[in-house]
Specification:
Helices cover 16% and strands 45% of the residues. By secondary structure, it is α+β, with helices and mostly antiparallel strands. Strand 6 (67-71) and strand 7 form a beta hairpin. The longest helix has 19 residues, at 2-20. It is elongated and about 75 Å long. 21% of the residues are buried.
Length: 219
């Protein structure tokens, strides 16, 4: 019995070691579009910036469908069709032995955007006093994604009044005073036409088409 247990433990040890015996490390880099560094996910319709490091080797090459080298150990991956992409790393070790490793990444679609005011989205209900310095933000529905962006302006519409163009990402004092004076209980204020700066050019079309307005009902 003791011999069987020892053999079983040895089997599990070897199995665990074999599954984790890779020396190459692939991580997402910090860009305007930021993917969780450790995630094995890449996104369609955007350039995924990856860092590939292989410590203690003479040289290595990386290959995959849609993978191009940008500089040093930085690569861009623009995935095509399918549900996954395999990045193959061909390595020459310091002792001149050769080793090949494969890393599987899931391919996902970017999905839509969420617009929030003070952290809330969709049809929200606020008292007028809660709109003082209220912050407008946009983000991805996918929680694995975030991005560095700056909202440059948005449009705010009070019922019965012309639209107000607000610069920046929050309701300024002048706009807040107009809300206090002109909005009544039950009115719905619409925040739309949100403009933002995102340096990832491929996503500009998504941003133009995909930023939803926010409706704020006064109570």
């Amino acid at each position: 019995m003791q011999k069987k247990i020892s053999l079983l433990l040895l089997f599990f040890s070897l199995s665990f070691y074999g599954q984790n015996d890779t020396i190459s490390v692939i991580k997402h880099t910090d860009k305007d579009i930021i993917v969780n560094k450790e995630s094995k996910i890449v996104y369609r319709s955007m350039i995924n910036s990856l860092s590939i490091e292989v410590p203690y080797c003479k040289s290595f090459t990386a290959r995959a469908d849609g993978l191009t080298k940008s500089s040093n150990n930085l690569y861009n991956l623009n995935p095509g069709s399918g549900l996954e992409v395999v990045i193959t790393i061909d390595i020459v070790l310091k002792n001149n032995k050769k080793k090949t490793e494969k890393h599987v990444f899931q391919i996902k679609n970017i999905g839509g955007f969420v617009t929030t005011i003070n952290g809330r989205s969709g049809l929200v209900r606020f008292q007028k006093s809660s709109l003082k310095d209220a912050i407008i933000k946009i983000g991805f529905e996918d929680k694995n994604l975030s991005f560095l962006n700056k909202i440059t302006s948005f449009s705010l519409k009070i019922p019965g009044m012309p639209s107000i163009e607000v610069f920046g990402n929050k309701i300024n004092q002048q706009t807040y005073e107009k809300i206090l004076k002109n909005a009544s209980k039950g009115d719905q204020i619409i925040i739309s036409e949100i403009k933002t700066t995102v340096l990832e050019g491929i996503l500009k079309a998504f941003l133009i088409c995909g930023i939803n307005p926010i409706v704020v009902e006064i109570y």
